[in-house]
From TrEMBL:
Pfam families: HTH_17. This is DNA-binding protein. Residues 11-59 form the Helix-turn-helix domain. GO terms for molecular function: DNA binding. It comes from the Bacteria. Keywords: DNA-binding. It comes from Streptomyces cahuitamycinicus.
Amino acid sequence: MAVAVRPGQKLTVDEVCDELQIARSTFYDWRQKGRGPRCIRLPNGSLRIRRSDFENWLMDCEDPS
């Protein structure tokens, strides 16, 4: 799936879950265990993930073999 990337783009939890094809519960489980991407908590309690943080997190998840 092609993703249009804007500089400074912020993703919602649903967008991250859709891209990774995971359930929201999996995302929150990873977050609780400190294994998920860095998040920004907005004043209304919603989370956003910077595209750059998400991409860096994905690179860190790569298997070196």
